UniProtKB/TrEMBL annotation:
Keywords associated with the record: Chaperone
Keyword check for Metal-binding: no
Listed transmembrane segments: none
UniProt xrefs under SUPFAM superfamilies: Head domain of nucleotide exchange factor GrpE
Record's signal peptide: none
Lineage: Bacteria, Bacillati, Cyanobacteriota, Cyanophyceae, Oscillatoriophycideae
Entry protein name: Protein GrpE
Domain of life: Bacteria
GO molecular function list: adenyl-nucleotide exchange factor activity; protein homodimerization activity; protein-folding chaperone binding
InterPro entries associated with the record: GrpE, GrpE_head
GO biological process: protein folding
Length: 155
């Protein structure tokens, strides 16, 4: 069996390095715990915001259920109420850098658009967007979901 001798100076260096590694491990564990708590807090926040949207929809549905034959005023207010819910949802998404795609032209940009249907329209140029079927979104600079569109065709 080999007996290795380590100088006192090397022992001290080794003990110092081991101590530093234990400190670093403790700091990393603390940072990981903190990150987990932050993630839970962020999740709770988004859930609370989504529950506000749920409450609004529940209230709106309850209002409509209580009126089997809603009058004209109710029907006139319905789009505004739904727009409020949509605005709230977009606000929740925007806080998390999820942004609605805004088109700058009538022609689809195939990096962010997906054509799901074509319709014959003699009055429009080929490949003109006639309808947005499903809104697209980006997160930071990455495409989260493409915009689904209907485009024109001549025949």
């Amino acid at each position: 069996m080999n007996n290795y001798k380590i100088s006192q100076e090397n022992k001290n260096k080794l003990l110092s390095q081991i101590t530093n590694l234990f400190k670093e491990e403790a700091n990393l564990k603390q940072a990981l715990r903190q990150q987990g708590e932050n993630n839970r807090s962020e999740q709770e926040q988004i859930f609370l915001e989504l529950l506000e949207v749920f409450d609004t929809l529940e209230s709106l549905l309850g209002f409509l259920e209580d009126r089997p034959e809603p009058d004209e005023r109710v029907w006139k207010r319905l789009p505004k109420s739904l727009k409020t819910v949509q605005t709230k949802l977009l606000s929740i998404l925007e806080k998390r850098q999820v942004l609605k795609i805004e088109l700058s032209a009538d022609q689809p940009d195939f990096t962010i658009c997906q054509v799901v249907e074509r319709e014959i329209r003699q009055d429009l140029a080929e490949q003109t967007i006639t309808k947005i079927v499903r809104q697209g979104f980006t997160i930071e600079d990455k495409l989260l979901r493409p915009m689904e569109v209907i485009t024109s065709k001549q025949e």
